[in-house]
Amino acid sequence: MARATSRKARIGWTVAAWLVALLIFFPILYTIITSLKTEQEAIAGFDLIPSFTLESFQTVQSQNNYFRPFTNSVILAVGSTLLALIVAIPAAWAMAFSPTKRTKDILMWMLSTKMMPAVAVLVPIYLIFLRTGLMDTRIGLTVLLMLINLPIVIWMLYTYFREIPGEILEAARMDGATLRDEILYVLTPMAIPGIASTLLLNIILAWNEAFWTIQLTTTNAAPLSAFIASFSSPQGLFWAKLSAASVMAIAPILVLGWFSQKQLVRGLTFGAVK
Amino acid sequence: MTTTLRALLGATALCATAGIAAAQDNVTLTIATVNNGDMIRMQGLTDEFTAANPGIQVQWVTLEENILRERVTTDIATQGGQYDVLTIGTYEVPIWAKQGWLVPLELGDAYDVDDLIPAVRDALSVDGKLYAAPFYAESAMVMYRTDLAEAAGVTIPEAPTWADIRDAAAKMTDKSKEQYGICLRGKPGWGENMGFITAMANSYGARWFDTDWKPQFDSEEWKATLTDYLAMMNEYGPPGASSNGFNENLSLFQQGKCAIWIDATVAASFVTDPATSTVADNVGFAQFPNREGVDNRGNWLWAWSLAIPTSSDAQEAAQTFIAWATSKEYSELVAEREGWRAVPPGTRTSLYENPDYQAEAPFAAMTIDSINAANTQKASVQDVPYTGGQFVAIPEFQGIGTAVGQQFSAALAGQMSAEDALAAAQSNTTREMTRAGYIK
Amino acid sequence: MATRQTQGLARLMRAPAIILLFVWMIVPLCMTLYYSFLNYNLLNPGMTSWAGWFNYQYFYTDPAFFEAIRNTLVLVLGVLLITVVGGIAIAMLIDKPIWGQGVVRILVISPFFVMPPVAALIWKNMIMHPSYGVLADVARFLGTSPVDWFAQYPLTSIILIVAWQWLPFATLILLTSLQSLDTEQMEAAEMDGAPAYARFLYLVLPHMARAITVVILIQTIFLLGIYAEILVTTNGGPGTASTNLTFLIYRAARLNFDIGGAAAGGIIAVVLANLIAIFLMRAVGKNLD
To answer: What sequence ranges are listed for the domain ABC transmembrane type-1 (chain A) (predicted)?
Structure first.
C-alpha cells in the first residue's frame, strides 16, 4: 500500500476486521470448545472455557471407528478431483486457446447440468448403481463425484487459462516449439497455480458432498458424511459428542484449507479479474 | 479295504467340515440400525456374538432415524440386498411383510417365542407369522415430578383424565423459575408430534379415517384434541415447543424444567438414571390420560425390531444374529455388564416377572401395563379401516402424517389457528388419499 | 491464426469432457422424464402404470407449490444479497492495512470448509436453539426472552445459515478482484478530492462488476439445490413456511416414495432453473465477455 495510513486508522481497521472475523468464525470455534466439554457442561449455558476433556472424542471413536470413513473421504475427494482434472485440463485448454463461437454456450450448458435436483434423479441413479454393481464401491462414487464437479472444474480452468496471454504461445511457436514443448515448458508453469487452486477447491467440494455419499453407500465406501449422519440425532441431547464428531468430520479439510489458502485464493477467480 | 473305506470316509468328513467352515467364514452380516442408546449398546456387545459364532462377521451401519428409513426403504423396494438385518418399527413390519419383502423368522425352541409380550408379538406378525423380533418396545405414559406435585398440593391419579392433567399442569407451572407445567412433542413429523397427537386424539375418541377412508379432521373430537393440546402448551408449556421432539423434552425434564411429560415409556429409564437426570429420585408414573367418558388410553405401541429382507444373501446367519440379540440371554448379558435398568424394555414377559428387574426399575409395572393395554387392531373407539395405534399402518402415512404434523406445529408456533390447521390437514389428506386410490 | 489441424486437436481434447457430461445429463434426464409419466410408488412396485400428465398436474396443484417457488426465490435472493453486500464490505475491510491479515483471512474463509449438514447442525443446536443456543444466552443476558428462530423466522434462519456458508466464497472472489484494482487510479481520484463514496461508486464498484456477476452465477446454481439445511433444521415448516422447490421434491421422493411425482417435480425444477439461468445471462451475462 503506497498510501500512508495513520496509526489510529490502522488500529481502527484492525479491530473492526478482527471483530468481523471472530464473529464469522464463532460457530466453528464454539463447536470446537463444546467438543472438549462434558455433556453436562455442553448444555449448562454459555461458557467459553471447557474442561478440556477428550471423553467425547473417545466415545465417538468407540461407537464408530473414524479411520475407515476418513480414508474413504480422502480417496473419494482426491480421486474424483484428479479424475476430473484429467478430463478437464485438455477440454479447458482447447476452449481457452481455440475458442469457437459456441464455447460460451457449451460452458453454460455444462454449468446447467448441475441444475437437476439430486433427489429427483436419485432413483434412476440408484437403480443404475445397483444393476452395475457400483453400489457402495469407491470407484462408483469417485466417478459420480467427478461428474458432479466436472463443470466447475472446467469453468475454473478455462477462466484461468484464458488469462494466459496468447502472444506467449505464438512467440514460442515462432521459435519452433512443438506442441509438446509448448505444453511442457510454456503452459504448464503458467498454469500450475490455477490447477492447484482448482484442485483444492474441488477437494473441498467433494469432501463436503453429503447427498450421494450417504445414499449410495453402506459400509465399504461410506465417507465422513455418513459418519456424521450416525450422530446427528441420538436419544437425548449429546451435544459434546455431536460436536466431537463434527470436529472430526471437518477438521482435516479445515486444516488443509488453512495451510493452502494462499494457493486456493490465487486461482479462485472464475474469470472475475480481467 | 476297511482302511481305504475309513480313509475315504474320513476325507469326505474332512471335506464336509471344511466346506461348512469355508461357507461360514464367508458370511458377513451388514446390519442397519438407528443411533439410539440401546442399539449402540448392542454394537458394543457384538464381540460376544462373534466369539460364540466364529464363522460370522458383523458390520454395522448406524444412521440417524430418518436417513436410515430412507436408505432401508429404497434398498428393500429395489431389492438391493445391501443389508442382511434391518432395524425397523411396528409401522414398517406389517406393510413390508405384506409386500413379501421380509423373511418369516424361525428362531428355534430355545428362543421361547411365547415369552414375547402378546401385544408386541401381534404387532410384528402377519397372518400368524412373526416377521420381526422386537429389540425394545414402548407404549406411552405420564411422567411427572412427585416433589413439585407435593409442593403444589396436587395428586395425579394412576389413571388420570386430560382434565386432571391440565389442572395439575396449571398448578405446577412457575414460569419465573423456568418451571413449566407440561412438556409435549411439537416438532413436526409423523413419528414426532403426530405420534403424540394421534395417541391423544385416540384418547379423545377421534379417528384418522372413517371406514370409507375419509379423513376426519373436521370432526368435533379432532377439534377438541387440537384446541386442548394448543391451550395446554400455550399456557403451561416451555418456549419454543414447536421444535421440541422426544430428545428436547427428555433433556428439559432431566434438567427439572418440566413438571409433566407424556411420552414413550422408554424414557422412564433415562429420567430415573441418576447419572444423567437431576430429578431421578422424584419421578412418578401414571397411565396415558383419557377424555372423560372415552374408554381409550391412546393405544401407543412401538417396537424397534430386527428383520431380514428377502434380498439378503446371508439369511441363516441373520436369523442366528436376531435370535441372539433379542434373546433372554442377551438381556442377562446387559444386566451383568450394566445393571438391570439398562436392559432393553418391553419385549419379554419374563423380564417383568424378574424380581431383580422390578427392584431396579421403578417404572416396570407401569410400562408393562401400558404396553398390555395398547390395542393396535382398533386404535379408536369408533370403527376404523386401519391398524396401528399412534400411526396409521398404510404406506402413505409417512408423507401424510408429516404434512399434517407441519400444520399442527405451525399452529403451536402461533402462525395459524387451530381451525385453519385442521382445515388444511383435512384438504391435504383428502388430496393424498384420493391420489393413492383409497377414496373413490 | 488457428489452423485446421489445431482445430481438430481442440475438438479431440474437448470431446471426452463433453461426451461424459452429455451422458451424465441425458441418461438421468431421460429416465426422469420417463418416470414422470408413470404412476410409480416405490412402496407399491407392482402397481406401476402410465399416468400421462397426472404427475405434473398433481405437483403443480400442490397447495405448497407456489409458496415453494416464492421461498426458492426469497432464499436465493436473500443469500445473494447478504453474501454480495457482506462480501464487498469484508473484502474491503481485509484489504485495509491491518495487523494479522493472514489470520483474519483464514478465520473469514473457514465456514466454506464445513460440510453443509454439519453447518446446519451447529447452527440449529449450538447457536439458534431456543433454550440452549448461544443466541438464547445472549437474549437472557440482555433481559429479553429468547427467540425461537426456526418457529418464528424459519426462512430467515435458513437464509442466515446458508449465507454464512457462502460468504467466504463471495469474499474471496471479490477480494481478488479488489486487489487487482489499479491503485494509481485510486490515488489520482483521491488527489482530485473525490470523496470516499464517490470513489467506491465510480471506481471500485464498476471494477468489481465482473466478480459480482461470477458470484451471482455460481452461487445461484448451488442455491437452487439447497435442501440439506432445511431438512436438518425446520423440515420445511412450520406449515410450509420454509419449503422450497427442492425440498418439495425431496418430500415426494423420500417421504412419500412417489417416484413419478418426484420426477415430475424434478422436470419442473429443471425448467424453472433454466429459465432463471437464461434470465441471469441476459441480465448480467455481458459482464462475462
So the answer is: 70-260
> A237: nearest CA in chain B?
B247
Residue of A nearest to B276 (CA): A40
Q: What is the largest CA-CA distance in chain C?
A: 79
Band of pLDDT at residue A233, cut at 50, 70 and 90? low
In this predicted model, what pLDDT tens digit does every residue of B374-429 receive, in sequence order?
A: 999 999 999 999 999 999 999 999 989 999 999 999 999 998 999 999 999 999 99
Cα–Cα distance, B92 to B67 (Å, whole number): 15
Strand B302-307 to B85-88 pairing: antiparallel
Bridge partners of residue B317, in order along the sequence: none
Write phi, then psi, for B86 (nearest 5 degrees).
-115, 140
What is the spatial distance between Cα C126 and Cα C128, in angstroms, rounded to a whole number?
A: 6
CA distances from A200 to A71, A254, A266, C114 (A): 18, 12, 11, 14
- Answer whether residue B16 shows pLDDT above 80: no
Distances from the Cα of B340 to the Cα of A49, A92, B47, angstroms: 37, 66, 20
Tell me, yes or no, if A218 comes closer than 8 A to chain B by beta carbon. yes
Interface of A with C in 77-116 (CB under 8 A): 87-88, 90-91, 93-95, 97-98, 104, 106, 108, 110-116
Q: Which of A28, A45, A87 sits opposite C16 (nearest CB)?
A: A87
Domains of chain B listed by start with CATH number = 2-138+302-352 (3.40.190.10), 140-300+363-435 (3.40.190.10)
Examine residue A54 and state whether it is found in any structural domain, yes or no: no
Note whether C268 and C66 are within 8 A (CB): no
* Domains in chain C, CATH or no CATH each: 62-288 (1.10.3720.10)
Query: ∠B413-B415-B421 over CA atoms, to 5°?
Result: 95
DSSP state of C46: G
Give Cα A34 distance to the centre of its chain. 25
pLDDT band (50, 70, 90) for residue B238: very high
Contact state of A229 with B276 under an 8 Å Cβ cutoff: no
Residues B402, C151: C-beta atoms closer than 8 Å: no
User: For the segment B31-42, what is each residue's pLDDT rounded down to a tens digit?
Assistant: 999 888 889 889
- Using CA coordinates, name the residue in chain B closest to C243: B406
Name which of C56, C65, C233, C254 to mutate to probe chain B: the one with the most chain B Cβ atoms within 10 A of its Cβ.
Answer: C254
- The pLDDT score that the predictor gives to residue B10 is 45
As for how many domains chain A has, the answer is 1
Range of the domain at A109: 74-229+249-267
Q: Which of B37, B61, B65 sits opposite A218 (nearest CB)?
A: B61
Q: Does the residue A127 lie in any domain? A: yes
Regarding beta strands B140-145 and B258-264, do their DSSP bridges make them parallel or antiparallel, or are they unpaired? antiparallel
- Selected residue with higher pLDDT from A51 and B215: B215
* Residue B207 neighbours by CB under 8 Å, 6+ apart: B201, B216, B221, B379, B380, B382, B383, B384
Closest listed residue to residue A194, CA positions, set A98, A268, A262: A268
Please tell me whether residue A227 adopts helix, strand or coil conformation.
helix
- Taken in order A177, A183, A187, A188, is the CA torsion positive or negative? negative
Chain B residues whose beta carbon lies within 8 Å of the beta carbon of residue A218: 30, 32, 61, 71, 82-83
pLDDT reported for residue C3: 63
Grid cell for residue B161:
383424565
pLDDT of B127: 92
Predicted TM-score (pTM) of the model is 0.90
Contact status, residue B156 vs residue B284, Cβ threshold 8 Å: yes
In CATH, what number is assigned to the domain containing residue A179? 1.10.3720.10
In this prediction, residue B13 has a pLDDT band, given cuts at 50, 70 and 90, of very low
To test the contact with chain A by mutation, choose from C9, C40, C113, C177 the residue with the greatest count of A C-beta atoms within 10 A, namely C113
pLDDT-derived band at A191, boundaries 50, 70, 90: confident
